[in-house]
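Batch manifest, entry 17 of 40.
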Amino acid sequence: MKVILLILIFSLFSFSCGKKKEAAAKEYLTLQSEFNTKNEEAKWTYQIEGKRLSQNIDSFEAVSNQVSLTPSAFIALQGGHSFSGIYPYIEGFTTLDVTDAQGELLELIEKFCNEFIKYSNDVSVSKIQKEKKLTEDIERVSPDSSTLTSLMARETFYSLVLYIHDTESLFPVKSFMIGKPFITDENFEIPVRFTCNKKILYTYIYPIQQNGGWKIQQLEIERTEDYGGSE
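Output type: structure tokens
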């Protein structure tokens, strides 16, 4: 009796599973048919640069085949995208990016700044010597502005004279920083930050080309600033 009962239960279970499989198969066929219909009716666009999406790019026209195309190699490409450098920014001044003032122009500005520092220190020493009334047998420092004058354009020496007169109270000058040039169709403006005895001196230098070289046309004081505030 038990055997017959087990056979009946197994038969009912098999029949139930068969019905479920049949229903699942019909549902799958219905979904597949619907997908095929949608796929046939869909308007597909052409693939954009399909070859580039699947192509293995292992060389570049501006790079030797022996160079591995790592991120570092791409940065060094001469024919690829340009990457701007990262430069320090001085609060209240500008960035120290002088890439637009290379070669003879940058040499001119650096030479002026170094000679201005030297001149300011000579003036300071000379004042100290005069105040102490040193004897004649002691060598005195005589400030010489001839090198500074040689860096100025013709008929613009007055700009140097006025600049020295207006900044002499700040002497001695200790150091300088050259900032990012401001370039227009008519002017070339280069900001310079001088660190003086107790103040910061902000200056604009305006160079021009003269006789195939660079000279300074004008010197302009933007402002002076205490180490802890502005004036």
